[in-house]
Amino acid sequence: MDKRISEAELEIMEALWRRAPLTAAEVAESVDEDRGWSPQTVKTLLSRLVSKQAVAHQKDGRRFLYSPNVARDDYVGGESQRLVDRLFGGKVTPLVAHLAERDALSDDDIEEIERLIRGLKS
Amino acid sequence: MDKRISEAELEIMEALWRRAPLTAAEVAESVDEDRGWSPQTVKTLLSRLVSKQAVAHQKDGRRFLYSPNVARDDYVGGESQRLVDRLFGGKVTPLVAHLAERDALSDDDIEEIERLIRGLKS
DNA sequence: TTTTCCCGTTTACAGCTGTAATCGTTCTGA
DNA sequence: TCAGAACGATTACAGCTGTAAACGGGAAAA
User: Fold this and answer.
1) Strand D contact at CB of residue A38, distance < 7 A
2) Per-residue model confidence as pLDDT tens digits over A112-121
3) Example GO molecular function term (chains A, B) (predicted)?
4) Å from A43 (CA) to D20 (C1')?
């Protein structure tokens, strides 16, 4: 948990959050579908993540097994907080209000948020 | 509305969203407090924003007047959507749930969101 | 044993960012 | 009229990103 994780690196993290530990080749497989990256690219991203300490690797014979070193929840929480801080003065309500106004909320969403909020109140 | 606005550039946008049109010098003044940028830096950021078409400039004598070319609301909406897409599978509810779980919501927030949701339902 | 393959590591390279300094031109005050 | 001042434009430069290719060493296959 050192420097920020870039967009491409996030793809790698998602693969490792889905399943870990994985070898570089397995990560490449788990990710290639959508992005079409060469295995080299995946390896580069993995080592960058290792130096950023977002990913840990332990030797397994002559190869490495990679595992996330940051919980997805923590990452997601941090990023959400960043957004809220940067754009909504640190307040969550305006974010929700904003999404609501932009019709980004379906009726089901509204229903569900209401249930959620109701749960929080008790 | 072309390429993405970077973090530093966002500071400039915020100044222009607060008040516009402004000269480069005025932007620098309106922003310098927190960041401690040299006026040159502000000018560089302004021209980058102009080439990204996030800012418009019209000649006023031998200087330019700069104005935002993107509404803050649109920008904020786009960024929020990006976050929701990248980290919450495009669903808003998990975001709210997440913030709630992380205790990022005060009682007042909850109260207010509830009011907001209630408003949406009717 | 020799060739081939697989790994991780190193190097590459262009585009974006942060942060300016410098340049050329034009207005302005002396 | 002539030297600054003020502007925008051009150039700088290191660090981060996206996207690999090349390299070197060991393991596996022939």
Assistant:
1) yes
2) 888 888 887 7
3) DNA binding
4) 10
User: CA–C1' span, A24 to C13, in Å?
Assistant: 24
Q: What is the DSSP string of B53-91?
A: TSEEEEEETTEEEEEESS-HHHHHHHHHHHHHHHHHTT-
Domains, chain B, with CATH or none: 1-89 (1.10.10.10), 91-122 (no CATH)
DSSP state of A61: T
Amino acid identity at A84: V
Size of interface A-B (CB pairs under 8 A): 94
Query: Tell me: the pLDDT tens digits for A34-73?
Result: 799 999 999 999 999 999 999 999 999 999 999 999 999 9
* Dihedral Cα B96, B99, B101, B107, nearest 10 deg: -90
Q: Residue A107 CA to chain centroid, in angstroms?
A: 27
| B51 CB contact with strand D at below 7 Å | no
Our CA angle for B101, A5, A52, nearest 5°, is: 115
DSSP-assigned states of every residue in B85-114: HHHHTT-HHHHHHHHHHTT---HHHHHHHH
